[in-house]
Design a protein that fits this description.
Elements: H1 2-38, H2 40-47, H3 53-69, H4 71-84, H5 87-107, H6 111-114, H7 117-145, H8 153-182, H9 184-189, H10 194-197, H11 199-211, H12 217-224, H13 232-237, H14 240-275, H15 280-294, H16 296-308, H17 310-336, H18 352-370, H19 373-380, H20 386-402, H21 405-416, H22 424-440
Helix pairs in contact: 1-5, 1-7, 1-8, 1-11, 2-3, 3-7, 3-20, 3-21, 4-5, 4-7, 4-20, 5-7, 5-11, 7-8, 7-20, 8-15, 8-16, 8-19, 14-15, 14-17, 14-18, 14-20, 14-21, 14-22, 15-18, 16-17, 16-18, 17-18, 17-22
């Protein structure tokens, strides 16, 4: 009895070490990726011609979106490496690429200094960031899931799910601290570079931690038994049954999850700043506080999905989001102090408490749809092609469908003059996803990966 208890404690300690090391690196990569979005309005003035602020912002958001659009290609490249060489090696490489690209953005000359080469350089570095993130998430989620015991994959992988939101929160915190420390004028001139440049220290710390981690036990056993795929891309996408699972994962889960995520965290920020004209510091504080308060619910919904299933929670979150976005954004307009009759005037006396509560509700939807998604995806595919197969639908759903939310939303508002028009896109995608997922997704929370007696992989 003593030996069993000791073994259990050792196993529990091991999984928390895995989660800590994986989460630290993934958080830093999300921090790197999100700084760009958080500073979009300032970057627009630095890297694009002056004269039309709306065009410059849309150009910046388009560049921001390219980082999301290229993520599926990163998923294919690094997913293949992860299934052939190992989970650990793949997300070590992505960490270095992300850190290098982020630091380089902080050192990039502006449009006034080098002309057209400034936005071109920005675009290239953004593409590198997207490729890196395309390989990072699938590796971290698969790595943690393959260390997790049966019946608790939703709970343990939900800690990885917090890293994206915490990465955004940390990016907002660093930006606010820098902005308050340098002052508004200096921040717009050169202070905005600091959050990018400090990334190099964070990446070095994370790389040191990850170097000490061992490979996933599921991957090691699969490799030793000779069951590893020789061609993960072919086996993932040319096999009819697996290709069907990839499409179901995309259109029945991750597309809707992606638009809910980026509406609640990014579009809400752009809406406050560009439509409602809320002060930069106040808008960022509203988002940061809402993110901090809602983050624990990733774990709540992840753990709950182990009991009642991933499908019920994710699709319910999408339904409620689609039904309530419009009244939430009308309420945001009301409490912002913005006058629609003077659309270019700064919002007066915004109600921070009410705005934070309204954004918190949106982030709560994010936690419901995103908390269980890693467990859902890793359970959907066999171990020999898991990294490749789960990464592609995740990054198309989040990188393309989700990543385009700020750009499409802002463009629709600008073209129609209706400041609620930006909600049409995320509501439509969420509804379509619920319809497809409701009919085609099968719950797999009870699938067994490990033999209770022998401890062998049964994935």
């Amino acid at each position: 009895m003593l030996n069993v208890s000791s073994k259990k404690n050792e196993s529990t300690s091991g999984i928390w070490t895995v989660i800590g090391a994986s989460s630290a690196g993934t958080l830093i990569e999300w921090y790197d990726f999100y700084i760009f979005g958080s500073l979009a309005t300032i970057i627009a003035a630095q890297f694009f011609p002056k004269g039309n602020e709306t065009v410059a912002l849309l150009s910046t958001l388009a560049t921001f979106a390219t980082g999301f659009i290229v993520r599926p290609f990163g998923a294919l490249i690094f997913g293949r490496i992860g299934d052939l060489v190992g989970r650990k090696y793949a997300f070590m490489v992505t960490l270095l690429i992300m850190g290098g690209a982020t630091t380089a953005i902080g050192l990039l000359p502006t449009y006034e200094q080098v002309g057209i080469f400034a936005p071109i350089g920005l675009l290239v570095l953004r593409l590198l960031q997207g490729l890196a993130l395309g390989g990072e998430y699938g590796g971290a989620a698969t790595y943690v899931a393959e260390h997790s015991p049966d019946g608790k994959r939703g709970y343990y992988t939900s800690f990885i799910q917090t890293t994206a939101t915490l990465g955004l929160f940390v990016s907002l915190g660093v930006i606010l601290a820098t902005r308050l420390g340098t002052g508004e004028v200096a921040f717009k001139q050169w202070g905005w570079r600091i959050p990018f440049v400090v990334s190099v220290a964070l990446v070095a710390f994370s790389y040191y931690i990850r170097r000490r981690m061992s490979e996933s036990p599921v991957f090691q056993k699969m490799k030793a038994s000779g069951k590893a795929s020789k061609s993960p891309l072919r086996d993932s996408f040319l096999n009819p049954e697996n290709r069907k699972m990839v499409l179901i994962a995309l259109f029945g889960a991750t597309a809707g999850q992606g638009v809910v995520w980026y509406t609640g965290q990014f579009y809400a920020l752009y809406y406050l700043q560009t439509v409602l004209k809320v002060d930069f510091v106040i808008a960022n504080m509203v988002i940061a506080i809402a993110l901090l308060l809602a983050t624990p619910f990733f774990v709540v919904f992840g753990a709950l999905s182990d009991k009642i299933g991933r499908k019920k929670i994710m699709l319910s979150g999408m339904v409620v989001a689609a039904l309530t976005y419009y009244p939430i954004y009308r309420a945001m307009e009301h409490y912002s102090g913005w006058n629609p009759l003077e659309p270019n005037a700064t919002a007066l006396n915004p109600n921070m408490f009410a705005l934070t509560a309204l954004v918190f509700i949106q982030v709560l939807y994010v936690t419901a749809v995103y908390g269980p998604i890693a467990a859902f995806l890793v359970e959907l595919f066999p171990a020999n092609i898991r990294y490749t197969s789960m990464s592609l639908p995740y990054h198309i759903g989040n990188g393309v469908f989700g990543g385009l939310v700020p750009f499409i939303g802002t463009a629709m508002v600008a073209s129609t003059g209706n400041h609620f028009a930006g909600l049409i896109y995320p509501i439509s995608i969420a509804v379509i996803t619920v319809f497809i997922g409701g009919f085609l997704i099968k719950e797999k929370k009870d699938v067994k990966w490990f033999d209770d007696n022998k401890g062998s992989d049964a994935a």
